Amino acid sequence: MPDTQPATTQNAAPAVRFQDFGLADSILRALADQGYTHPTPIQAEAIPVVLRGHDVMGAAQTGTGKTAGFSLPIIQLLLAHANTSASPARHPVRALILTPTRELADQVADNVKAYSRHTPLRSTVIFGGVDMNPQTAALRAGVEIVIATPGRLLDHVQQKTLNLSQTQILVMDEADRMLDMGFLPDLQRIINLLPRERQNLMFSATFSPEIKKLANSFLKNPVTIEVARSNATADNVTQVLYKVDEETKADAVAHIIRERGLKQVIVFSNTKIGASRLSRHLQKEGVKASAIHGDKTQGERMAALEAFKQGSVEVLVATDVAARGLDIAELPCVINYDLPYNPEDYVHRIGRTGRAGASGDAISLFTDKEARQLADIEKLIKHTIARLQLDGFAPRRASERRSRHEGEEGGSVQRERSPSRSGSPRREKVDPWFLKPYEPAPSEPREEPEAQAAQTRPQKAKVAALLGGVPKR
Asked: What residue stretches are annotated with the Helicase ATP-binding domain (predicted)?
């Protein structure tokens, strides 16, 4: 009978609320403005530990709210130093949050600003690709919380617009990428600028054994928080694979978008040039697409991302610059145009969908050349991805695709094609003279050697007597 059946653990334990952590009323008010009352598992585990001052290594599936897991307790800890003084000296940098990408830095800054909006605390974001002057003005006015990418942070340190001597808390968001993708020298320089006594927090969706070893060199007796199996993918994301030929990949992406009626999807490419080419291909197919990658200026990247969030762009073709930390509300689908070389990046890519408990689809295209990458991914996630047939997809032949695209680019101008490009020989008028067999030229009478030499011997030019050309007598 229902009345006598034992309740599950989730029903037996009362739901944890943010107010149970002892957060200030100003923070709770900001959370209420955002519509948040209950923490996610990583937040419920991390917030009390950070508030007690411990170093933390936090691992959780992407999309579970790690940003609030460290930003909320940081704001709570810094409230003891909050003041409304206009003096910059009263607002030193007390917390530093490092991120690997500009987009993630901007997103974290938005979250910190939203959570601290009812407090006197100041925050700012600094990253490359934009003018330094506004960032310099904000730093000189005084801020307690700085969100930054390592390169631009060191630029400000070199120009003496940033002082980290009073920093109490260091956060490395997406720590595996920070340590594993060439940031280690910059991180070491930054750490040397910080006080020896500080609190260190590292959060990421994936931690390999090598990264854990490196992270432990920066942390002091860290508390490890893992709310799910390491490198796991979310259960609410449906993962499928479609095997296609390399030359039909772009058409397959367009087919999937049309057949599924997708109006908001991120497509991941391994290369910048591949992202640009796929974006142009989709535009020619009538899809509202835009590319975002490292060769784009920061203004172009932010504009493309904002257009995607607003819906004026339906498909965002991106490199892994967009795979880390970007939070697109209710993103229904992501497509892997290329399987990533690094299997951990697969976890981050598909983590752009199915966020905050919502369902999502992760579609991947693969070819025979990517068999090794697929095996590494399935080994990492400990899951075999379903292989399906792409129904209704009839790829055009290469000659048809070239003909169509060249016709679109050339408009009404008719272009002649060589046999190697179009598959059909070009008909041209041929002069019959070129079809005749070779006939040697008729022999001419030979000239006497002396006469021939006389013709070829150079003749001396006559020189005026004034210049020394006096004739011999």
From this structure: 47-225
Strand partners, 226: 59
One-letter amino acid for residue 240 of the chain: V
Q: Which amino acid is at 415?
A: R
Pair 381, 264: CB distance under 8 Å: no
Q: Which among 353, 392, 364 is positioned nearest to 258, based on CA atoms?
A: 392
Q: Does residue 385 contact residue 241 with C-beta atoms inside 8 Å?
A: yes
Contact 372, 336 (CB under 8 A): no
* Dist CA 90 CA 229 (whole Å): 43
User: Mean pLDDT per segment of 10 residues, for the chain of length 473 residues?
Assistant: 34 69 95 90 93 89 80 96 93 95 88 96 93 95 96 94 96 79 84 94 76 78 79 79 93 93 92 93 93 82 85 90 62 92 86 75 93 93 90 69 51 42 50 64 53 53 56 55
Calculate the alpha carbon distances from 160 to 139, 189, 346 in Å: 10, 15, 39
CATH of domain 237-393: 3.40.50.300
Q: How far apart are the first and last CA of the chain?
A: 145
pLDDT reported for residue 118: 96
C-alpha dist (Å) from residue 351 to 196, 260, 286, 291, 346: 35, 20, 27, 19, 8
Compute how many other C-beta atoms are within 10 angstroms of the C-beta atom of residue 407: 13
Distance of alpha carbon 140 from the chain centroid: 31
Cα–Cα distance for residue pair 76/116, rounded to 1 Å: 9
- Read out DSSP for 441-457? PPP-PPPPHHHHHHHHS
Half-sphere exposure of 364 (CA within 13 A, CB side): 25
> How many CA atoms does the CB half-sphere of 411 hold within 13 Å?
1
Q: How far apart are CA 283 and CA 295, in angstroms?
A: 19
Side chain identity at residue 12, one-letter code: A
